[in-house]
Write a structure and sequence with these properties.
The chain has 256 residues and is α/β, with parallel strands linked by helices. It has one domain (27-255): Rossmann fold (3-Layer(aba) Sandwich), CATH 3.40.50. Helix content is 37%, strand content 16%. It has ten helices and seven strands. Helix 5 links the parallel strand 3 (103-109) and strand 4. It is globular and about 50 Å long.
Length: 256
């Protein structure tokens, strides 16, 4: 037989449970930053996988490219990358002002990762949720620590030693997106941050998570090349679960 105290406790639990279901879910944003040339390739893949994202997540595209097919200009114009990084940081601050409790995520590919890192590095510590970098075309010793500090969860990096064409001979011509004349791009070797103290070592150890391509990934759509990390099955099984695997969402707007 239930005591009076137990009955009261059960009643409060039921009331709280009903009340919690009425609380709107926290707003979430996923900002997509395409690679050089503005091919919109990642967007096309994500559009087919929207049911794998949370229902309260808004997908936005951040347009930073010089224009369609302008690959070299996007990859080599460092002042433009810096300017677009500042615009990205400003756009994120606007979202944070309008939605103080919003969770902000970024996914970027290739040269778009340079814009993502430039912008995120300007934000306060722990101010956005996570950043996902696919085949980053910046150098492996890019100063990534300020960006790592700005995220609550992690900076997730997908790289491949097999990315030997775009991040190999092509870089002899264009240089990396941070204008380092090297073929040692982070998208091929991962990031190797230069830490200056114990605090930075801890940041790297806890918040920088890197995923090297392996031959088994070929069976789910990632052949190890520059575009493999957003191959449809691989994106669905390996990349999107880093966000949230709840249905569904939709593209609702584009950032300026």
């Amino acid at each position: 037989m239930l005591s009076r105290r137990n009955i009261l406790s059960l009643g409060l639990t039921a009331i709280c449970s009903q009340f919690s279901f009425g609380i709107p879910a926290k707003k979430k944003f996923l900002i997509l930053i395409e690679g050089a040339g503005d091919f919109q390739a990642v967007a096309k893949v994500l559009e087919k996988s929207l049911d794998l994202l949370p229902p309260n997540m808004e997908l936005q595209r951040f347009h930073w490219s010089h224009g369609y097919l302008r690959i070299v200009a996007d990859q080599t114009d460092l002042p433009h990358i810096s300017e677009q990084g500042e615009k990205l940081a400003s756009s994120i601050r606007i979202i944070q002002k309008q939605h103080p409790d919003a969770e902000i995520n970024i996914i970027a590919h290739s040269a778009g990762t340079s814009v993502a890192l430039a912008g995120v590095s300007l934000l306060n510590e722990n101010s956005i949720e996570r950043v996902i970098l696919l085949a980053p075309s910046v150098s492996k010793d890019y100063p990534i620590i300020p960006a790592i500090a700005a995220v609550k969860d992690s900076v997730h990096v997908f790289y491949s030693h097999e990315d030997t064409f775009i991040l190999g001979p092509i870089l002899k011509f264009t240089k990396t997106a941070d204008l380092r004349k090297t073929q040692n791009a982070a998208g091929r070797y991962g990031f190797i941050p230069a830490t200056r103290n114990r605090e930075e070592e801890l940041l790297v150890a806890t918040k920088l998570k890197q995923y090297a391509w392996n031959p088994e990934d070929a069976s789910i759509g990632n052949n190890g090349g520059h575009y493999g990390a957003y191959g449809q099955p691989y994106m669905n099984k390996k990349v999107l679960p880093l966000l949230f695997s709840n249905p569904p969402t939709r593209i609702t707007s584009a950032m300026p």
